[in-house]
Design goal:
By secondary structure, this protein is an alpha+beta fold. It has two domains: 154 residues, no CATH class; 151 residues, Histidine kinase-like ATPase, C-terminal domain (Heat Shock Protein 90, 2-Layer Sandwich). It is 50% helix and 19% strand. The strands form three sheets. The protein has a five-stranded antiparallel β-sheet with strand order 2-1-5-4-3. Strand 9 and strand 10 form a beta hairpin. Helix 3 packs antiparallel against helix 4, helix 5 crosses helix 7 and helix 7 packs antiparallel against helix 8. About 9% of the residues have low confidence.
Length: 410
């Protein structure tokens, strides 16, 4: 069970973590390439010849070369861009344009430009926007355009830091969610496993008792040849056969095999089942009343419904008070088919109303006078009802204990 819980936890945790990573990485990657595409478009835009702005003492506004109207200079306020004129040998000659609002240190720009010229031979370079300080492009008119990546570096690193923080917070939330989901998934399995262990232990105990009696009776018979020991063995053998039969019936109903589901007249099945027990009611001096609404049909397995009625009626007879009464009702109400089997006698305690349908569960000895009652009949009845998409419940009120079965009609 512990291994199953660990596996479920790891699978859910890895799935949620992977999904979170995919979302965060996709977001970072999308933003990164958006920035890279923006830089690429800006650098590509400088492939046109720039306007030449001389920076010397003889500068005259009247001599400024104005570019044609069809090729205006683009200004990018969000980026710092330097435009460098190169000489015929591809070396730094002068800076002719920049978009920085800060005072320009031309020596620094010259140093950066010479480093690019001497170390990089690519005509176009952007690099890693997390680490590269500059991007550049050599244009066809012997110009070098340098873009300062400082702001983009800071922005992307800030987003990366925020994403890591979000991931850590998400991991904490994922651990909590994974624990709750794992518990929700494995709790029914754990409960079923525990019930299975209890079932095996109870079945072993119930089988061990008659076997022990049979062995002791056999030893006693060999000692004194008294036939009463043979009768004891016969009685215990019959008890074992009854228990094994009920175990097989329980296993059969839990598997849900061999059911022939078809539209049957439920009223006739119920009435026939009741009439089978008439002689037993007479022998036990128990009064029987039944009210069966005619021609109620249900998509069901006839043998299973007959077994269900046998269990409920047999249970009502066993626990009915002396000279008491058993009432069976079948009717339609609000698009439901309702079957009730009532008997007078000692009530079922409130806390036992659901437990009595568990395998091998027995209430106090006053309701288990018959030694052949193993606590399997109502468990079988519940399985039959659930196989037919119904519900079964029990409660005691006004001197009657009532077992109620409901089926919804379409």
């Amino acid at each position: 069970m512990k291994k199953l819980k660990t596996k479920v936890f790891l699978v859910i945790y890895l799935l949620l973590t992977t999904f979170t990573l995919i979302v965060l990485i996709s977001s970072l990657t999308t933003n990164y390439f958006n920035e890279k595409n923006s830089i690429s478009k800006i650098l590509s835009g400088f492939s046109r010849p720039p306007s030449t702005i001389r920076r010397d003492n003889n500068f005259d506004k009247s001599t400024t070369q104005v570019p044609p109207k069809e090729e205006p200079r683009q200004i990018y306020l969000d980026f710092t861009i330097y435009t460098i004129i190169l000489d015929d040998n591809g070396n730094y000659r002068e800076i002719v344009n920049n978009t920085s609002s800060d005072e320009i240190n031309e020596d620094n720009i010259k140093e950066i430009a010479n480093t690019i010229i001497s170390n990089y031979k690519d005509k176009y370079y952007i690099g890693n926007l997390y680490t590269s300080k500059y991007s550049y492009a050599f244009t066809n008119n012997n110009t070098l355009v340098i873009m300062d990546n400082t702001n983009i570096n800071k922005q992307l690193l800030s987003q990366l830091g925020i994403s890591i923080l979000i991931f850590v917070l998400c991991e904490i939330i994922i651990l909590i969610i994974t624990y709750l989901i794992t518990k929700w998934i494995t709790d029914p399995v754990r409960e079923s496993f525990e019930k299975q262990k209890i079932f095996v232990a109870d079945a072993s105990h119930e089988l061990k008792t008659p076997l022990s009696v049979m062995i002791a009776s056999a030893d006693a018979y060999f000692n004194d040849k008294d036939e009463k020991w043979v009768h004891n063995m016969k009685n215990e053998s019959e008890r074992m056969i009854k228990l094994v039969t009920e175990l097989l019936d329980l296993a059969k109903t839990e598997r849900g095999q061999d059911l022939v589901m078809k539209e049957n007249n439920l009223s006739n099945i119920i009435e026939s089942s009741i009439l089978t027990f008439e002689s037993l009611f007479y022998d036990k001096n128990i009064k029987l009343q039944y009210h069966i609404e005619p021609d109620i049909t249900l998509n069901c397995d006839e043998d299973s419904i007959t077994e269900l009625m046998s269990i409920l009626i047999d249970n009502s007879i066993k626990h009915c008070s002396e000279k008491g009464k058993v009432i069976v009702n079948l009717n339609r109400k609000n698009k439901q088919i309702i079957l009730e089997v009532k008997n007078t006698g000692l009530p079922i305690k409130k806390e036992d109303e659901e437990k009595i349908f568990e395998r091998f569960y027995k209430v106090d000895s006053s309701r288990n006078r018959n030694s052949n009652n193993y606590g399997l009949g109502l468990a079988i009845a519940k399985n039959i009802v659930e196989q037919h998409a119904g519900t079964i419940s029990a409660h005691s009120q006004d001197g009657y204990t009532t077992f109620k079965v409901k089926w919804n009609q379409k």
